[in-house]
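Colleagues,

For the teaching module next term, I've prepared a clean inverse folding example: a structure given as tokens, and then the sequence designed for it. I'd like students to try predicting residues themselves before seeing the answer, so please don't circulate the second half yet.
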């Protein structure tokens, strides 16, 4: 995680230095934003969001929006897992049933976004609308569960049938998302701004989240 943050920081600084040589050609003006904040799932679980934002100018009020980030999201869960295992003690095989409840899941994502930003009014306060399509690399999925209850049996035949099916969790490795957002930028100077943004992210595989972030643009 520290390596990813360092890479994003170095990348953003390279873009910033390149801005010193602006011309009047198409795509010549590129704003950079670094954001951090929270995300909340529909069942009120709170996680974290980090985004590096690039906004090449298309027209006076339209910018292309390119973004790379990191997100950790939580989702409530409520189901029971029943399974069994086999262990050998002093040459004798024992069969163990296991039962626990899954109470919560967490997802670590690296999202990539491509979309547009429409600025309603260019002023000291510049409100805008944001629409992005996204692709998510799901780098980790974790399960939070209750203590496991185990019971030993001398034979497989003695195990109740509901424990004989092995539990297999289906963890997706990627997903697609759609992002709708509103925000406003406070232009502190011609090269520095404070940006506050809310967006809703719809996800095809995991959870949908409300996101509230704040960042610096330059």
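(Answer key — instructors only)
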């Amino acid at each position: 995680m520290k390596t990813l943050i360092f890479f994003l920081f170095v990348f953003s600084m390279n873009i910033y230095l390149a801005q010193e040589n602006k011309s009047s050609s198409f795509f010549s003006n590129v704003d950079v934003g670094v954001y951090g904040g929270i995300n909340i799932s529909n069942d009120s679980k709170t996680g974290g969001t980090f985004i590096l934002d690039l906004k090449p100018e298309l027209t006076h009020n339209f910018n292309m929006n390119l973004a790379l980030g990191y997100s950790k999201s939580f989702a409530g869960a409520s189901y029971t897992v029943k399974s069994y295992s086999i262990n050998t003690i002093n040459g004798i095989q024992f069969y163990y049933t296991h039962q626990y409840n899954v109470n919560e899941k967490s997802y670590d994502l690296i999202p990539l976004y491509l979309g547009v930003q429409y600025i309603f009014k260019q002023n000291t306060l510049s409100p805008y609308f944001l629409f992005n399509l996204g692709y998510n690399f799901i780098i980790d999925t974790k399960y939070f569960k209750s203590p496991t209850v185990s019971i030993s049996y001398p034979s497989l035949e003695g195990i109740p049938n509901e424990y004989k099916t092995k539990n297999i969790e289906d963890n997706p490795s990627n997903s697609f998302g759609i992002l709708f957002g509103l925000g406003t930028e406070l232009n502190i100077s011609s090269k520095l701004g404070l940006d506050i943004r809310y967006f809703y992210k719809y996800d095809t595989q995991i959870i949908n989240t409300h996101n509230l972030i704040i960042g610096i643009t330059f």
